[in-house]
Structures are given as C-alpha cells and as structure tokens.
C-alpha cells in the first residue's frame, strides 16, 4: 500500500495553496475587531424556505423533493442556513454551527467519544436529526452522497470544502422516497457555489477563558471563468487546528486549567431495601474502593493498606466512614457496590479523560465545468482532505481489584511482608490506577478522504417541453488509521509485576519464560517512574493499530420535466435511477487481531510466547480484521399535481413519490411519500402535510463488523451481590439483518410575510416518526441485567464465571423507536429607519419540542423506555436557538441564545427519598428507585460583531458562552467523566477573532 505517502504528497500542494491564498488575510490577522461580510444578507424565508436559486442556472431547487419546478412548494419542512448566517457563527468547523439547530439532537463532534479507545468516533463530526442518530440522517454534498468516514457509513463534515458552502438545507422529515436509504430522520444538504467568481479568504483564531483549546483556521477560495465564460474553474483550500482540552490527571479536581465543576457525581447502588430507602443514591465525590492512585490492598486481612508516591504504606481513608471488612470478597462496611463517598479521591480516573479531542483539518477542493452550450454543462470535482485527532480515554490503565501480588515480591515493603507472615498469608489482592505509568493512553485517528465526481446537467427539448437532467458518477475513498500509544499488553504487564530476587541480588520477573522473552520487572507499589526498559516492554512503541479502507461508487441520473398542464397548472415529474456500491476492509495489528497468515508477526510486533496468538492482548484497542460489501439498485418517480389555483380557493398541490430499492444483502424494499400544500385564500397562510414510508438499510459495520474485543471494567454482576467484574466485551456482526422501516408524518401551518406584517414569518409543524425493526443491540450490562430479570434468551450471550469473563454483543432487528413533537420557527425583519438608525434588525428563533422518544427493546418481559426529557441523553423536552442581528453597510452586531429545558437522568427511575416502594430484583432492573433524578437545563449566550474595514476586508469577533455556564453532572454508575457533551458545553467561554477578505 502507498496510501500514506500519497496522502502526504497531496497535502503539500494544498498547504502551499493555503499559504499563498491567505497571504493577504494574514496581514490583517492581528486586527482585534470582528466583522461579517460587507453587505448584510436577509434571512431566508423562515417557515421552511425550501427553495433557493442555484448559482449556476437560476432555477429553483426544492430540497426535500426531486421536483425543480419554480412553481412548486414542497410539503416537507426545511430549515435553511445561508452563508451569511454561517459566517456570523464564526466557528472553525461549520459542523458546530449546523449542530446548534434544535432539530439536530445527538450530533457528534470533537467533544464526543473522548473517553473511547475503540469506537472510531473520536473527532468525527456527524449530524443526528430527531435524536435518531447519525446513521438515520442522510448528509449530502450538492445533493450527492459522500463516502463514509466510519464503517457505519456516516460522513465526516470536517472533510467537506466549507468555505464554498452557499447554504445548508436541513430537511426535517423522512425523504427516503426522494433520496434513498438513511433519510429516516431527514436530510442535511450542503449546497456549494459551483460558479464562484473572484477570491475570498478567512483567517481566525480562538481560545477559551481557561487558556486552552487554542485554535486557528485559514481558508481561501478562488474562481474564474475562461473561454468567454464557458469554462468555470473553482478551487479552495483550508487548514484548521484545535488544540483541544487534554487529559488533566488523576483525582477529582480541580479540572483542566481551573475548571472546578468536576465532582465525580455517581449513582451508587445501595441494594434493595425494605425500609423505604431508594436503591440508587446520587452522590458527589464518589470513589471506587477497588484501587487507588499508587496502590491499595483490596481484600483479606491487610485490606485497606494503601501506598503513597514513595511506596510508603498508610491506612486508606475510604469515605462514607467506610471500614474494610478484610474478607476475601473485599467488601467495605458503610460503602456500596464498590463505591464510597468522600475520603481519599486522588485515585479517581475520570478527570483524566480529554474534554475535547485535538483536531487538525486539511482540505483541498477543485471543480472545473464546461458549458457545452447555454443550457448544458459537464463538470468534474475533486476533494482531497485529511483530519487527524488525539484524545486520552484513560490516564492510566486502572486495575480494579484484579491483581494478586506475592508477599515475597521484593517491591513489597518489609513492613507489609512482616504483616503477611503475621497473618499467615503469602499473597494479597491489589488494585491500582497505574499512575506509575508516566504517559497517558493516547488515541490518534487519521482520516483521509479522496472523492472524485464527474457529471453533466442541463436541459434538452423533449416532446414539446424541456427535459432537465442531472447525471453523475462518483468514486469516494476513505482511509482511516487509528493508532494507540502508551498502552499496556496485559500478559506482559501481569508478568512484569510478579517480581523475584535472584541469587545475584538482582530483581527480575518471576516467570522464567517471561524473562527469556525479555520481561523487565515493574514496581506498581508507589509512584517510582519505571525504567525505560520496563516501559518498552509493557507499553511497546508500536501499540494497537487499525487500518481501514472504505470505498463508495455511485452512478446516478435524474430527470425533471413538465409534460402537460391541467386546469390548475403544469404537472411536474421527476424520475431516475441510481446504483451504489459500498465496500470496506479493516486490518488490526497481530497483537489485537491475532496472528494469521495474512496478518503475521512483524518486526514491529514480534512473536512473544506470553501473548495469545488469537489476539486481544492489549488493555484496550484490540482491533480485528474484517471486510464486507453490498450493492444497491434503485429507481424513483415523483410527481407534483396542481389541484387548484384560483383567487377564491387559493393554490394547492399534491406531491407523490415512490422508490424501489434492491439491496444485494436483504432484497427489495419500497418507499413512498404522499404530501401536499395549500396556499389558502387567507393572506400569507399556507398549510402543509406529508406522510412517508422510509428505510434505513443496515450498514457495513452492522452487517460485517470486525470482531472487536474491549475490556469493560466495573460491570455490575447481579448474580454476585452487585459486585463489579471486569469482562471482555466481544462485538460481532450479523449478515441476516433487514432494513429498518419507518413511517414519518408531518403537518403544519405557515404564516409567510402577510400584508399586515411583511417582515414576519412563522411556522408550526407537528412530526411523528415510528421506526420498526430497528437494528440494535443491548449493552453488556443490559444483557446481564435482563437475563437476571428473567429474559432467559440472553443468558447464553455471556459467562461471568469463566476464567476470562465475557459478554457477546450482536445486532438484531429487535427494537422500535417512536418519537413525536413540534417544530416552531419564527423570524421578523424590519428596517430601523423609523428609529433613525441605519440598517435592518432581524429576529429569528427555532424551537423543537420532543413529546415522546420511546424505545422498545422488543424482548419478552421488557417495557418501552421514554427518552424525552432525559438530559443524560440527546432529547431534552425543549431546545431553542434564537438570534437577534443588527446589520448595516458598515457593521453588524449579533446576539445568540441557546437553551434546553431541565430534565431527568432517566425516566425509568422512580424518584423518592423515603417511603420508596419495595421492589423485586426484576422490578429494580426495570424501574429502580433513586433519591435525586433531576438534571438542570442550560442557557448559553453568545455575542458577535463585524466591522467592514474596507469594501473587501471585514474583521470580526465572537464570544461563545459569554457567561461561562458550567456543564451539569450526568451521573453514571461508575467514575468515568460525568458530563454529557451531546447537550452541555464542556469547554466554557470561548473567544474568537478573525478577518475575511473578498475580491
């Protein structure tokens, strides 16, 4: 493979272009004043302005439909963000701006997945509409599909050419009949300026109030026409870097650079009670009592003896007035389920998770188009981009009560050896955070995208009318390399900590076979820095590695025409077909995947008799080989039928669409849409409604998931008095999966610029989505809990008593999702002449109310769960985005408010402090009692300003989260990082300044 050298060489001209293209902007970089574009742009029509002129043809394109007739009004609500609105947001990644829309719930960005080693989502920017997840949101670039940046098929917005984006259309309803699979929650379509003329550039930097996440962005684009305007060339280049907020270390706090909100808020399981007390206690300052920063004896007669950094023993302070029981189980009186409250908190690991990944984005884009005549164009585009990110999921490699040390180990202090002898023991159980390791675990994903499109579009005479066509072929390729460093090999670590003193007085590994293979002993009692040889042995330079190649090939053609007219106007038709092929292959390193003929030991991963040739040798990040592919053939037909167009009855139309899709993996499925709009005789009032059958086909990951094995510490074992157990979680694919089927219904009323208020737009829409056959899998903890609660079908998926406890996780068409609610959008724009002020004032607000978000697992003896208003998830009851913008010829001032309502940790909890209901074990699994189930909402206030230095140069500034609102705790049942980045701002106040140029 020559992938990496190719990517490297391709990035050099891109960097050169960026340097040249932003030279002018760099001269004004130090300017501290903020600005927007020279001329303020009016907001698009608020209630789903589904139509906007394309730069190239001037035709009206309606997003959410394939009909392109200028007289057509789509029934599917659409929210539009113009380039001017996007620029005012002043974000280094356009993804952040779009993700703030209330209808987008659960979108993932640089603050998501930072506690993960193996998910592959670190630094991945992907949209989620309606909280249905990125896999049920179709993201397009100029109406075309984009190759996935992850085996789930989800593209990475960071890889899009962002400076050329002319607008973003967000279709908040099912659109599978028009656009195909994945459009269950809706469509996000990025529309670029394909015929841009001139030169423009943007330079920006920013930093948080805590002095971290320093970021800078450089963007430049140029376009020019040749050959009397027939040849159009557009190029752009971008470079953006965000330092992120790295891991801070062990203990509770203060957090990174003074963030004092991290308080290890944890849900402690106190067990079932008959005296009215709740099962779960929502507690701050929780600590796990199975390990400490520099080591703790966790069971037996010496339980409770801890060690400081120098290795000196002391009596550990448990918190909760906990007293170690000094039994074989290692229980602590006064503490519950492995946790105490207060005491010595120095060993907590949650503070050591990155708050935001470091991310670097490099992007090059070019388009060349040639007009065959005035009505027809052929074109080609190329997009080469690279995104790298870094995060720390865990500061060390915590071992929770899982180690056994021999009393004779020469690293054990003499005083402890004497106590061993006095108590008649030769070994003891031991837990440690592994703060002894000098470097934190680091995960470094690198995604490279190569996307090529060739197409033709225009119109030709056909049967007395114009037949419009749009055809393209696309080849996309994404190469992802994930490298993990500073992580231990389990077998080597276990061998290194078992030390003996040899006859010559030297300390060595106890196992002769380990010594023969290069084992160097490790002292985990105290915090003495291990030798370089020890670190090289237990954390080799070449850690876990995963290489993924993913390709997408598309051939598509679509036609539009108006073959005839009725009494109410011309009938419009759209029809066409598409072929698509998706493929991926992933390869893991031989220590994680296992040694095979195609994946043998190498110089970087030499053979070691201590390691399992079947793989799964790393503490985490055990990547496995896998591959898969599928093909799709589909055809669609859509029609707009005018029903009435008279002054007395208004104007109404009926929109119909159907699509047949054949998947090579699961057969044929049909989707359809029926909708209509009525422009009533009442001034400015339009009614709209649409219902559709939509699908999402299982993706490559669900069908052909490379077996992934991760270590899950602290899984609660209800079969053993809720004691924690470390398990191996094995995730595997399922080729028998079928497409998910959704029914999507929306109905609303639109008030658009009535004569009595020409600047007013208002819309209210009700939405209802039911998805059946949802591809889903239970978590390892859920499988165990439901088996314990009586769902015996799941009991064969795990064995917690095996020598290596494990849980197998696999996807099935088990579940269903039901969600409904309201979208409200309003705007009002007016000139300020009456106040003797220059310019316009624009007010805009968007709100989404989630009435229900019900997930039914689909298993016997289980009940549906209500996710609406769960602030530990992604669907609060209310989410609002509001802006007020004063725009003049010389400056603009914009205020933005982001708000979501207070909610709960889970709607399944029963909140009570006293007189709680007595529950059986099964009832406690489904509806446990809790003393505090509340989570607050949040209000964020942003302010931005622009100033036109010249007609071509604009300076701007932006402050996000002006009042530095801290995130609320999202308590869990472990001591992981306890915030929810899907809802809460985890960074704090952010300052940005920049300058734009346009010639």
From TrEMBL:
<keyword id="KW-0675">Receptor</keyword>
<dbReference type="Pfam" id="PF07715">
    <property type="entry name" value="Plug"/>
</dbReference>
<keyword id="KW-0813">Transport</keyword>
<dbReference type="InterPro" id="IPR012910">
    <property type="entry name" value="Plug_dom"/>
</dbReference>
<dbReference type="InterPro" id="IPR036942">
    <property type="entry name" value="Beta-barrel_TonB_sf"/>
</dbReference>
<feature type="signal peptide">
    <location>
        <begin position="1"/>
        <end position="35"/>
    </location>
</feature>
<dbReference type="Pfam" id="PF00593">
    <property type="entry name" value="TonB_dep_Rec_b-barrel"/>
</dbReference>
<dbReference type="InterPro" id="IPR039426">
    <property type="entry name" value="TonB-dep_rcpt-like"/>
</dbReference>
<keyword id="KW-0472">Membrane</keyword>
<dbReference type="InterPro" id="IPR000531">
    <property type="entry name" value="Beta-barrel_TonB"/>
</dbReference>
<keyword id="KW-0732">Signal</keyword>
<keyword id="KW-0998">Cell outer membrane</keyword>
<keyword id="KW-1134">Transmembrane beta strand</keyword>
<keyword id="KW-0798">TonB box</keyword>
<feature type="domain" description="TonB-dependent receptor-like beta-barrel">
    <location>
        <begin position="548"/>
        <end position="962"/>
    </location>
</feature>
<protein>
    <submittedName>
        <fullName>Outer membrane receptor protein involved in Fe transport</fullName>
    </submittedName>
</protein>
<keyword id="KW-0812">Transmembrane</keyword>
<comment type="similarity">
    <text>Belongs to the TonB-dependent receptor family.</text>
</comment>
<feature type="domain" description="TonB-dependent receptor plug">
    <location>
        <begin position="73"/>
        <end position="187"/>
    </location>
</feature>
<dbReference type="InterPro" id="IPR037066">
    <property type="entry name" value="Plug_dom_sf"/>
</dbReference>
């Amino acid at each position: 493979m020559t992938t990496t050298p190719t990517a490297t060489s391709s990035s050099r001209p891109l960097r050169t272009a960026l340097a040249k293209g932003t030279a002018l902007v760099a001269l004004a970089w130090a300017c501290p004043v903020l600005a927007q574009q020279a001329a303020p742009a009016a907001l698009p029509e608020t209630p789903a302005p589904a139509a906007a002129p394309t730069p190239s043809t001037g035709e009206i394109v309606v997003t959410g439909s394939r009909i392109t007739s200028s007289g057509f009004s789509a029934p599917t609500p659409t929210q539009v963000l113009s380039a001017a609105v996007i620029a005012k947001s002043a974000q280094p990644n356009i993804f952040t701006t779009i993700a703030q829309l209330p209808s987008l719930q659960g979108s993932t960005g640089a603050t998501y997945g930072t506690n993960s080693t193996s998910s592959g989502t670190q630094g991945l920017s992907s949209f989620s509409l309606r909280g249905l997840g990125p896999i049920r949101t179709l993201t397009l670039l100029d109406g075309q599909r984009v190759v996935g940046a992850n085996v789930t098929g989800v593209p990475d917005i960071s890889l899009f050419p962002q400076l050329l984006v002319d607008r973003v259309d967000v279709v908040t309803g099912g659109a599978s009949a028009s656009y195909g699979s994945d459009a269950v929650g809706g469509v996000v379509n990025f529309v670029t300026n394909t015929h841009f003329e001139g030169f423009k550039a943007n330079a920006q930097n920013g930093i948080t109030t805590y002095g971290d996440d320093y970021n800078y962005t450089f963007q430049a684009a140029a376009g020019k026409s040749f050959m009397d305007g027939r040849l159009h060339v557009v190029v752009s280049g971008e470079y953006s870097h965000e330092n992120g907020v790295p891991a801070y270390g062990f203990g509770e706090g203060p957090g990174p650079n003074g963030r004092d909100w991290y308080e290890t808020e944890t849900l402690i399981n106190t067990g079932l009670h008959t005296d009215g007390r709740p099962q779960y206690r929502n507690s701050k300052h929780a600590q796990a009592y199975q390990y400490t920063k520099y080591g703790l004896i966790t069971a037996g007669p010496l339980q409770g003896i801890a060690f400081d950094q120098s290795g000196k023993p002391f009596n550990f302070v448990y918190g909760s007035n906990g007293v170690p029981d000094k039994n074989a189980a290692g229980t602590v009186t006064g503490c519950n389920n492995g946790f105490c409250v207060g005491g010595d908190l120095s060993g907590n690991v949650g503070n050591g998770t990155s708050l935001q990944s470091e991310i670097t984005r490099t992007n090059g884009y070019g388009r060349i188009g040639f007009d065959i005549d005035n009505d027809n164009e052929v074109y080609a585009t190329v997009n080469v981009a690279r995104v790298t990110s870094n995060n720390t999921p865990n500061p060390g490699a915590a071992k929770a009560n899982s180690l056994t040390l021999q009393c004779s180990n020469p690293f054990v202090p003499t005083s402890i050896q004497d106590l061993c002898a006095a108590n008649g023991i030769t070994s003891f159980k031991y837990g440690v955070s592994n703060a002894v390791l000098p470097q934190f675990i680091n995960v470094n994903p690198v995604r490279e995208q190569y996307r090529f499109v060739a197409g033709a579009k225009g119109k030709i005479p056909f049967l007395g009318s114009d037949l419009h066509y749009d055809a393209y072929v696309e080849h996309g390729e994404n190469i992802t390399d994930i490298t993990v460093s500073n992580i231990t090999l389990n077998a080597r670590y276990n061998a290194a900590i078992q030390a003996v003193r040899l006859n010559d007085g030297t300390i060595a590994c106890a196992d002769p076979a380990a010594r023969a293979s290069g084992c160097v002993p490790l002292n985990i009692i105290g915090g003495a820095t291990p030798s370089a040889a020890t670190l090289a042995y237990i954390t080799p330079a070449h850690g876990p590695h995963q290489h993924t190649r993913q390709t997408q090939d598309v051939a598509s053609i679509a036609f539009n025409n108006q073959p005839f007219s009725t009494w109410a106007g011309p009938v419009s038709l759209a029809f066409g077909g598409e072929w698509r092929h998706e493929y991926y292959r992933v390869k893991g390193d031989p220590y994680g995947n296992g040694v095979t003929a195609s994946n043998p030991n190498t110089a970087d991963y030499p053979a070691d008799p201590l390691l399992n040739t079947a793989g799964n040798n790393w503490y985490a990040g055990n990547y496995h080989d896998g591959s898969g592919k599928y093909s799709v053939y589909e055809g669609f037909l859509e029609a707009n039928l005018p029903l009435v167009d008279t002054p007395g009855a208004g104007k109404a139309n009926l929109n119909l669409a159907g699509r047949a899709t054949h998947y090579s993996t699961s057969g044929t499925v049909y989707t359809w849409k029926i909708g209509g709009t009525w422009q009533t005789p009442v001034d400015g009032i339009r009614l709209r409604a649409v219902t559709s059958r939509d699908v999402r086909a299982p993706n490559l990951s669900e069908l052909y998931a490379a077996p992934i094995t991760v270590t899950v510490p602290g899984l609660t074992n209800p079969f053993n008095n809720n004691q924690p157990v470390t398990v191996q979680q094995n995730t595997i694919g399922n080729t028998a999966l079928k497409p998910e089927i959704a029914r999507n219904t929306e109905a609303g009323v639109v008030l658009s610029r009535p004569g009595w208020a020409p600047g007013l737009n208002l819309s209210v829409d009700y939405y209802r989505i039911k998805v059946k056959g949802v591809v889903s899998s239970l978590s390892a903890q859920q499988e165990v809990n439901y088996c314990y609660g009586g769902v015996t079908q799941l009991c064969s998926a795990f064995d917690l008593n095996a020598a290596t406890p494990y849980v197998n996780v696999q996807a099935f068409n088990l579940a269903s999702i039901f969600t409904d609610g309201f979208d409200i959008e309003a705007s009002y724009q007016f000139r300020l002449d009456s106040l003797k002020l220059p310019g316009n004032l624009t007010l805009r607000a968007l709100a989404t109310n989630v009435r229900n978000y019900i997930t039914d697992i689909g298993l016997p003896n289980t009940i549906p769960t209500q996710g609406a208003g769960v602030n530990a998830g992604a669907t609060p009851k209310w989410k609002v985005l509001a802006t007020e913008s004063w725009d003049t010829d010389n400056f603009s001032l914009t205020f933005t408010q982001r708000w979501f309502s207070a909610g709960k940790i889970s709607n399944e909890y029963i909140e009570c402090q006293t007189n709680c209901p007595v529950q059986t074990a099964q009832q406690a699994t489904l509806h446990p009692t809790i003393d505090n189930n509340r989570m607050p909402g949040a209000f964020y206030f942003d302010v931005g300003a622009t100033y036109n230095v010249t007609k071509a140069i604009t300076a701007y500034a932006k402050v996000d989260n002006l009042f530095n609102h801290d995130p609320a705790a999202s308590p869990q049942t472990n001591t992981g990082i306890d915030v929810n980045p899907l809802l809460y701002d985890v960074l704090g106040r952010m300052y940005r300044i920049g300058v734009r140029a346009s010639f």
